[in-house]
């Protein structure tokens, strides 16, 4: 089969490799679309703390069941359209024993620690395969994993009806967080974003956007929140400026959720956090329940036509151009999600 293999840091080769051999309770999936994630960029650069080469990247993918080696998944058949929750937990550490599989001490993912979806075929644990309704297209189904991140992030932030929400960073994950926040009942969802083209996309979804390069974020936010500050702030940019803005603009006793990976150890305004009694929250991937609920949520969005999720996808490229897609993200040229097709 054809696969885009990260053979060394900053080097991907499109190679012919064997089709994965199934073990017990595994499913072989013929990949239709795979999303390129910021994590793929981190791995590509050799900055991921536990990834190793060679590996086939890709933890955001959808496809069709090709082969089944499972006695437990009688609900699945050849040809079923599916997505896969890509987490691999040890099942033995304290977090796993408490049911928090998604923060396993030695958490691994398909496409990072084992071969993933940048290939014609990928194998996955049968228990992690989720069947799709026909109402959702393959392209939208490929957005399930980032939407699961957005779902879990909002759960961690406690987003609720009537909240005023700020999202710092309007890339694909920021957009997803905003959509889910609205689904949670947020009254107003506001973005800060520097890229004017992304701002146009944000506004096309009905959200508000402020460009810090030429607008007064503090003054506009004070007007939006009636000087109370935002109930929940999602820091998605990973920037030092974003982190300071998060604590500055958050309401007294509000919640700041850290989503974006900082490029270096950041500084924080601890005094402001103390005086405002802010709750600072980390958020890592998602639970399996979050992932399955995300699939149902996406189906509801598609069936109700609440949002045109195709607009989140900015580029579609053949898998042979996986490295070009990653380079495009490094240069910041993509306005939304890049999908690889097969």
Structural overview:
There is one protein chain. The protein contains 11 helices and 18 strands. With 342 residues, the chain is an alpha/beta fold. The longest helix has 17 residues, at 288-304. The protein is globular. The mean pLDDT is 97. Keywords: Metal-binding, Oxidoreductase, Zinc. This is Enoyl reductase (ER) domain-containing protein.
Task: Draw up the topology in text.
Layout: E1 2-8, E2 11-16, E3 26-36, H1 38-44, E4 55-56, E5 60-69, E6 81-84, E7 87-88, H2 94-97, E8 108-109, E9 121-125, E10 129-131, H3 138-141, H4 144-157, E11 164-168, H5 172-183, E12 188-192, H6 196-204, E13 208-210, H7 217-224, E14 230-235, H8 240-249, E15 250-258, H9 270-275, E16 279-282, H10 288-304, E17 313-318, H11 322-330, E18 337-341
Parallel strand pairs: 11-12, 11-14, 12-13, 14-15, 15-16, 17-18
Antiparallel strand pairs: 1-2, 1-4, 3-5, 3-9, 3-18, 5-6, 6-10, 7-8
Features of the shown structure:
single chain, 342 residues, alpha/beta, Quinone Oxidoreductase, Chain A, domain 1, seven-stranded mixed beta sheet, six-stranded parallel beta sheet, 18 strands
- What helical percentage do the residues reach? 25-40%
Order of helices and strands: EEEHEEEEHEEEHHEHEHEHEHEHEHEHE
CATH fold label of the largest domain: Quinone Oxidoreductase, Chain A, domain 1
CATH class of the largest domain: Alpha Beta
Number of helices: 11
- Mean pLDDT comes to 97
CATH architecture field of the largest domain: Alpha-Beta Complex
Number of domains: 2
Describe the largest sheet. 7 strands, mixed
Q: How much is the radius of gyration in Å?
A: 20 Å
Number of strands: 18
């Amino acid at each position: 089969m054809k696969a885009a293999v990260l053979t060394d840091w900053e080097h991907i080769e499109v190679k012919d490799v064997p089709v994965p051999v199934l073990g017990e309770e595994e499913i072989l999936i013929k990949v239709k679309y795979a999303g390129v994630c910021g994590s793929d960029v981190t791995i590509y650069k050799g900055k991921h703390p536990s990834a190793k080469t060679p590996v086939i990247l890709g933890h955001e993918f959808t496809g069709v069941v090709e082969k089944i080696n499972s006695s437990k998944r009688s609900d699945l058949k050849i040809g079923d359209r599916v997505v896969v929750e890509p987490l691999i937990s040890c099942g033995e550490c304290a977090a796993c024993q408490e049911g928090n599989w998604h923060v396993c001490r030695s958490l691994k993912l398909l496409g990072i620690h084992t071969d993933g979806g940048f290939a014609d075929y990928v194998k996955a644990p049968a228990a992690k395969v989720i069947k799709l309704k026909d109402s959702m297209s393959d392209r939208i189904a490929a957005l399930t994993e980032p939407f699961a991140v957005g779902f879990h992030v909002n759960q961690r932030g406690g987003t609720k009806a009537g909240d005023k929400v700020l999202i710092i960073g309007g890339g694909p994950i920021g957009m997803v967080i905003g959509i889910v926040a609205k689904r949670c009942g947020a009254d107003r969802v506001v973005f800060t974003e520097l890229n004017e083209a992304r701002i146009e996309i944000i506004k096309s979804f009905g959200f508000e956007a402020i460009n810090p390069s030429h607008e007064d974020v503090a003054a506009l936010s004070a007007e939006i929140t009636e000087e109370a500050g935002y109930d929940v702030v999602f820091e998605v940019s990973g920037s030092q400026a974003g982190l300071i803005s998060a604590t500055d603009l958050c309401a007294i006793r509000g919640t700041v959720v850290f989503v974006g990976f900082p490029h270096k150890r950041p500084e924080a305004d601890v005094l402001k956090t103390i005086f405002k009694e802010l709750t600072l929250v980390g958020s890592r991937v998602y639970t399996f329940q979050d992932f399955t609920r995300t699939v149902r949520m996406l189906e509801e969005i598609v069936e109700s036509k609440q949002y045109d999720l195709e607009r989140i996808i900015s580029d579609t490229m053949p898998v042979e151009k996986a490295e070009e897609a990653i380079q495009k993200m490094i240069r910041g040229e993509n306005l939304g999600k890049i999908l690889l097709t097969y």
